[in-house]
Design brief:
heterodimer, A: 4 helices, 0% strand, B: 11 helices, 92 strands
Chain lengths: 96, 1212
């Protein structure tokens, strides 16, 4: 986890509670999970992380570029484009 | 097992490049390139050759670079975006030749992550702010300024984040001295993630957003956002503030659009290649802008390599027309840099980089598309078509070798030379090649001339100490001396004053302007205006050895007498002292006269009793023995070499002046020892075997510094490069005698004699470990094997999405006819791409193959004779079949002998899902002494055979997830046994005795056994870590080395007790096998070595690069680097190097802010590998830190340097 709780300063009257801390984490770090996360959300995050990692590691881009016989620039563009819908359409939401 | 990792050849591919004036001053223009984890400064010299000035390993992945200049300054700074979670600003320090870290600001976690900035960098054109962005969400702006002492300052970061937003590109907008603005292409995905109908995803729209940095409020705000074409991928700054209309060029698929706030879009279509399939777009992959006083233009390169010149017609702030004109076609580049001197540096994505000179700037009419003639029809915008042509505006003047990507590598002593050669398959598509690397420096031969006899020695001599060039070459024969004068031509002269009827022992410049010739019976001193003094030996004794510097001469007479002469103030040679040695003298040398001194204090005398004595030449203790060194064998030659004191400078770090005595011993060893400058004591001895002949050592000049040439069975050069003393072989034949050579045509050369020829050569590309010979190939090479008996090599090459050779040739023919040009030699199918004809107007190397649909494949099998570089057989596969694996097999009890087996796939496609029509295993027979192949039969299989291997006289094939054993039949291969239980796809098979080591594409290694009696293949051990294997090598019975896609190298070993148990078990562990563990085999291998290389390793091999040396594991990578892992022999060495590494981590944190240990453990914690690349940075540290580390290790800095040198010499 990203935070170490400072127990000495921890008081019941503290306006932070565990939920707001978690919300803060989720807002700050994209991809932080939550209890109601479904399979789709999880997969989307993994896929986006993977594509970002491919784009960030140049040798890996080159590796894909050779496999597909495309230019590295095209490969980077393709990966960035795929970040929009990496796992296809989201499932229909069940009403809560 | 502890390993020492050493990069032998730094990565040669380029990730990104920038140009600017980094050393200051307007005249100099340099290029800074990022080669993965290496940052380099390059400079084109006056001849247009690219020189590497500085190369630093930063131990982190560099992802982006930018340069900026503060207003009014003369010097550019470098901003580095890397995976360190930090922004780093560097300045090039010309005096010390280092990059100085000016600022390092931490903003996030390390690693290449989605929301941690580092992927993109943008600079305000006036150098007031920098923006660093991530793929998603985060963008940070730092304000750059100057403090009162004119030092660069950096602010704390200002956030320009936007959640759920993907960023495609960012750039600075030139708005003069108004508030800095940054532009970004963004895409918001939040709605598309929620909407299950897909409507939101269809409507998702990229936006061009301007972020304004308010310098007054110190705040960044979204100023303006407007929809932009959904194919947009890149932004280019348009000059503003008086120089142009400001705004940005948005490069999108098929379009270039000019956009600015409050300005209507100006759109033009990118011209298309006429032969491009309709479904393919045209994407701009690299761009550069060139601005002169009155005009500016852009060069944009497409993914096919075509470069377009883009110009804007503008009327103050209004852009009226955008024109895109075809410029030229060069290989696809990752970055282009236009330099002020009229050069274009293009860093190729794959293959050699090139430096071009502008012949024109595309002012002539050419195919052009313009916003004014934009036609929109029902099918969309109508493109303009063109056909690529030869270079018109550019001319290539230099190229920088790049091995990127290394697809396969084998180290063998194929040519039976002294050291093995490294065969690498490099490049992609039409720019592929087989490169043969040999350890050593390349030389370029300037002249070879035959002499009338077999010479024994050669010298060059100047007439005056102040002369720039040498005046004479003096060659000594068995009974004569030949004098050649150096001028426009080199010709024999007889008026030089040298005695030509006797052999010579030494020729040199003495005093300021007189020459000396030592011959067996005397010394001839030739003074100005032809006055000659002759000194004769007493009695019948002859001179056997001579040592001299500019002011001192020592001769040794037969019998062991030494006579010492000095040049007096009148320029006369005066006898000073005599000394009787105990026996004959083997060799002599005098140290050079130190700056500002009268004489050198040291004389070294080598004797046949295996000793070297250092004698004093000072008047008060003349001929006193100062020290004595005993040797393993008699010395053959001696040389004092001063490793010059320098305070940085272009050769690298500070190092103190130290005097080395080098001795070539008769055993072929070069012995080097440090001479104390005051006492003459010898210490710190190192020796190295150079070759079979006793090395002769000569002093020559390299880059203006003293260096050493050692001639053994091959020549070696000892020189200082970037702070290291390197002793490197030259790739040249055996030489007898050498001297440095300097003339008008050749400033720094070497003249040497070998056989009856006189040779003049220069040494090129100092600092490199390998020199290469290249043989072009046709398609992307995949793998290669050697014919086991004949000296031949067989490669398989295949490319997706290209047309077969016949269609390409007929299309090309048509194209030529259309252009009204005749055919040329390029038309034969057989040597299509092999032709090195540079004048070919449409060489595939330059233009690439025309694109075809993704299910089209071209492939060939080639038999090559590397010696003559001749292709003896080339077989093109038909009907979209592509070769992926190859091996040679000797089937048992069959008549054919060695057969060649090739695995192919037909109609393979990766998208939208991996599919294929069929897989085949071809069996070929060698014909014509192995120089040709003939198809025996082909067997259809259900998947792609990615791995083939011989096993017990049969063939093992990995077909998809099936491991199958085949025997040879008359019409096809016969299935004998199979195991279908492999998790994904088998991509490597190695065998040893009855064990089979299978590598899976995602699941690491599986150890199998074959039971002949039950005819069963079963897995008895596997790995618990999922590894995406890219390379594998069999190390020993229990150990495998592998490399994964993420840039890690690892070794796994089956524990000894498990291994014994399986070997002893009569069922071979079969009963246990039936009860698997963790969804796999019952036994698990253990990881014993783990190391992050930082680059996709594509090939591994165990080999030794030096004759008789220990074997190390060599690896080749995607980015074109070669490295080696050497196993340590002793515990002491492990302790020493791990401590050195620890101290280096502390005292020398990597330049770009990535923690060294974290980098080497990027995916898995590093285990038992010591990073030699870090240890080798030791000599580049400041002296006090070197001493501090040495103290902590209880050693002297000299000892540490010696250790580093020793371990390197064990590898190469």
């Amino acid at each position: 986890m990203f935070f170490i709780f400072n127990l000495n300063g921890w008081q019941a009257s503290d306006r932070f509670n565990i939920n707001s801390q978690l919300e803060h984490l989720q807002a700050k770090y994209v991809g932080t999970g939550h209890a109601d996360m479904n399979r789709f959300e999880w997969a989307v995050n993994i896929q986006r992380d993977s594509y970002a990692s491919y784009v960030g590691h140049y040798p890996m881009l080159a590796y894909f570029a050779i496999a597909e016989n495309e230019s590295i620039g095209r490969e980077r563009y393709n990966f960035m484009q795929k970040m929009l819908l990496p796992c296809g359409l989201p499932p229909e939401r069940e009403d809560e | 097992m502890y390993l020492y990792n050493l990069t032998l050849q730094q990565a040669t591919g380029i990730v990104c490049a920038i140009n600017g004036s980094f050393s200051g001053g307007n005249k100099s223009q340099e290029i800074v390139v990022a080669r993965g984890k290496v940052l380099e400064l390059l400079r084109p010299d006056e001849n247009g050759k690219i020189q590497t000035i500085l190369s630093v390993d930063v131990f982190g992945a560099i992802r982006s670079l930018a340069q900026f200049r503060l207003t009014g300054a003369q010097k550019d700074y470098i901003v580095v975006g890397s995976d360190s979670g930090r922004i780093v600003i560097l300045e090039y320090n010309k005096e010390k030749n280092v990059f100085d870290k000016i600022h390092q600001e931490t903003f996030g976690k390390s690693g290449s992550r989605r929301i941690v900035p580092g992927q993109y960098l943008a600079i305000d054109p006036k150098g007031r702010a920098v923006m660093i962005g991530a793929c998603e969400k985060q963008k940070l702006v730092y304000v750059l300024n100057r403090d009162t002492a004119a030092r660069l300052t950096i602010s704390s970061p200002l956030e320009a984040h936007k959640s759920h937003t993907i960023t495609y590109s960012i750039t600075g907008v030139d708005c003069g001295f108004d508030n800095p603005i940054f532009a970004a292409i963004e895409l918001d995905y939040s709605e598309a993630d929620q909407d299950s109908t897909g409507q939101a995803a269809n409507e998702a729209q990229k936006h061009l957003t301007f972020y304004e940095l308010d310098l007054g409020l110190n705040h960044v705000s979204r100023k303006w956002s407007e929809q932009v074409d959904n194919g947009a991928n890149m932004l280019v700054t348009v000059p503003g503030g008086g120089d142009g209309p400001s705004g940005v060029l948005v490069c999108a698929e098929n379009f270039v659009i000019y956009k600015n706030q409050g300005h209507p879009d100006v759109r033009a279509v990118i011209p298309r290649r006429a032969d491009l399939p309709a479904e393919r777009g045209v994407l701009i992959v690299s761009a550069t802008m060139h601005k002169q006083k009155s005009m500016f233009f852009f060069l944009l390169q497409t993914e096919y390599g075509d470069v377009f010149k883009v110009t804007l017609d503008h009327d103050n702030e209004r852009v009226t027309e955008l024109k895109i004109k075809y410029f030229d076609t060069i290989p696809v580049s990752s970055s282009m840099c236009v330099m002020k001197l009229g050069f274009l540096f293009a860093a190729s994505e794959f293959g050699n980089h090139a430096l071009y000179q502008f012949q024109a700037i595309g002012a002539d009419p050419d195919i052009e598309s313009s916003s004014a003639t934009l036609m929109e029809t029902e099918e969309g915008f109508q493109p303009v078509f063109f056909k690529p042509r030869g270079l018109k505006n550019l001319v290539r003047i230099d190229q920088v070798e790049s091995l990127m990507p290394i697809m396969d590598m084998k180290v063998v002593n194929f040519f039976e030379e002294e050291t093995p050669q490294i065969f690498t398959l490099c490049g992609r598509g039409p720019r592929s090649s087989l490169r043969i690397l040999r350890p050593g420096l390349a030389i370029s031969e300037m002249a070879v001339s035959q002499l009338p006899g077999v010479p024994g020695a050669v010298w060059t001599v100047k007439k005056n100490v102040n002369d720039e060039f040498d005046a004479y070459i003096v060659v000594s024969f068995a009974n004569a001396t030949l004098v050649l004068s150096i001028g426009e031509t080199v010709e024999e002269v007889s008026d030089s004053g040298f005695l030509d009827t006797t052999p010579s022992l030494a020729v040199s410049l003495i005093g300021d302007d007189s020459l000396m010739q030592v011959h067996p019976t005397g010394i001839r001193h030739i003074r100005d205006r032809g006055r000659i003094n002759e000194w004769r030996t007493p009695g019948k004794r002859t001179i056997v050895k001579v040592g001299s510097n500019r002011l001192q001469v020592v001769i040794a007479l037969s019998g062991g007498e030494i006579i010492y002469f000095e040049v007096d103030i009148h320029g006369q040679l005066q006898e000073v002292e005599k000394n009787e040695m105990s026996g004959d003298v083997a060799c002599l040398d005098i140290a050079p006269v130190p700056e500002g001194r009268q004489r050198s204090r040291f004389l070294a005398v080598g004797s046949y009793d295996n000793t070297i004595r250092i004698l004093s030449l000072d008047p008060d203790d003349c001929m006193q023995v100062l020290s004595l060194q005993s040797l393993s064998s008699p010395p053959e030659s001696l040389l004092f070499l001063e490793v010059q004191a320098s305070v940085g400078g272009e050769d690298g770090a500070d190092h103190p002046a130290s005097l080395f005595l080098n001795a070539g011993l008769q055993s072929g060893v070069l012995f080097r020892t440090v001479v104390d400058m005051v006492t003459g004591q010898l210490s710190d001895a190192r020796s190295r075997f150079l070759g079979l002949r006793p090395p002769k050592v000569f002093s020559i000049l390299v880059r203006g510094k003293r260096a050493m040439l050692c001639l053994s069975s091959r020549p070696w050069l000892g020189y200082v490069h970037q702070g290291h003393f390197l002793l490197t072989p030259l790739s040249y034949e055996t030489l007898e005698y050498a001297a440095s050579f300097s003339s008008d045509q050749c400033a720094e050369g070497v003249v040497a004699v070998a056989g009856d020829a006189l040779r003049v050569f220069t040494i090129e590309r100092l600092g490199e470990t390998f020199n290469e010979t290249s043989i072009p190939l046709r398609y992307t090479p995949r793998k290669f094997v050697f014919h086991p008996k004949k000296k031949l090599l067989i490669t398989i090459e295949s490319d997706q999405g290209a047309f077969p050779a016949e269609i390409r040739e007929s299309a090309k023919k048509e194209c030529f006819e259309a252009a009204g040009q005749g055919q040329n030699g390029k038309m034969e199918v057989e040597n299509g791409a092999d032709d090195e004809d540079k004048d070919d107007p449409l060489s595939d190397e330059q233009y690439g193959y025309p694109k075809a649909e993704a299910d089209k494949w071209v492939s060939c099998i080639r038999v090559l004779d590397p010696k003559s570089t001749e292709t003896t057989c080339l077989l093109e596969l038909q009907d979209d079949e592509a070769a992926f694996s190859i091996c040679t097999v000797n089937f048992h009890d069959k008549e054919y002998g060695t057969l060649l087996v090739v695995g192919t796939a037909k109609g393979l496609q990766f998208w939208p899902k991996r599919s294929l029509v069929a897989g085949f295993i071809h069996v070929y027979r060698f014909v014509k002494e192995g120089r040709g192949i003939e198809l025996l039969h082909k067997t259809q299989v259900e998947g792609v055979p990615l791995a083939l291997c011989q096993f017990q006289g049969r063939l093992l094939a990995g077909i998809g997830s099936v491991l199958r054993l085949y025997d040879l039949g008359k019409r096809r291969l016969l299935r004998k046994c199979e195991n279908k239980l492999f998790p994904n796809t088998i991509n490597s098979i190695h065998t040893y005795r009855d064990r089979i080591y299978v590598g899976d594409i995602q699941e690491s290694f599986h150890y199998c056994k074959y039971r002949r009696d039950e005819n069963q293949l079963y897995v008895f051990a596997d790995d618990s870590v999922p590894r995406y294997l890219t390379a594998s090598y069999h190390i020993d019975f229990d150990t495998m080395a592998g490399a994964d896609k993420f840039g890690n190298i690892y070794f796994v070993r089956l524990p000894q007790d498990v291994s014994d148990e399986i070997e002893e078990d009569p069922t071979g562990g079969k009963i246990k096998w039936e009860q698997g563990k963790l969804n796999g085999a019952p036994n698990k291998v253990e990881e014993i070595v783990q190391f992050h290389v930082g680059d996709v390793v594509t090939c591994l091999q165990k080999a030794s690069l030096i004759p008789g040396g220990v074997e190390c594991v060599m690896y080749g990578t995607m980015m074109g680097s070669l490295g080696a892992l050497l196993a340590f022999g002793s515990r002491d060495d492990v302790d020493f190097f791990s401590h050195l590494e620890m101290h280096m981590r502390q005292e020398n944190p990597p330049l770009c802010g990535r923690d060294h240990m974290a980098y080497r453990s990027a995916y898995f914690p590093v285990k038992d590998v010591i990073d030699g690349d870090l240890c080798e940075q030791y000599p580049t540290l400041p002296l006090d830190i070197q001493r501090k580390i040495a103290d902590e290790l209880d050693r002297t800095p000299g000892e540490i340097l010696r250790k580093l040198e020793e371990v390197r010499n064990k590898i190469v």
